[in-house]
Amino acid sequence: MSVHGPDHVRLGYAVRVLRAELALSQEELGDRCGLHRNYIGAIERGEINPTLRILLKLSTGLQLRLSDLILRCEQPLILPPPRRLRRPPRRKKG
Question: Is residue 84 part of a domain?
Fold first, then answer.
């Protein structure tokens, strides 16, 4: 599935950061919201255009007002630096 647009990416990033601040997995947040963990993941990736009903469920699960969630979405998007992937050590032949 493709990303809808920059606003969806900002919402997804805000949800991901807020979820991390609460130390919740996608499954745990989904349980709190009454949403499937895959749906939470799709929101975080900006693949879904959530309805008002879904945004209200998210804000409840994240323990904040919907207006605070929207404010987080409106903040400049500052992404963390990319993680460096470590290569596994090479095996010696022989």
Answer: no
Give a yes or no: residue 93 inside a domain: no
Domain hosting residue 68, numbered range: 6-73
Angle, CA of 33, 3 and 11, to the nearest 5°: 45
Residue with tokens 């010696």: 92
Per-residue pLDDT of 3-41, as tens digits, reads 678 889 999 999 999 999 999 999 999 999 999 999 999
What is the rounded distance in angstroms from the CA atom of residue 18 to the CA atom of residue 8? 15
In the chain, which residue ranges form alpha helices assigned H by DSSP?
A: 6-21, 26-33, 37-44, 52-61, 66-74
pTM value is: 0.77
Amino acid of residue 27: E
d(CA 41, CA 30): 9
Q: Assign residue 31 the CATH number of its domain.
A: 1.10.260.40
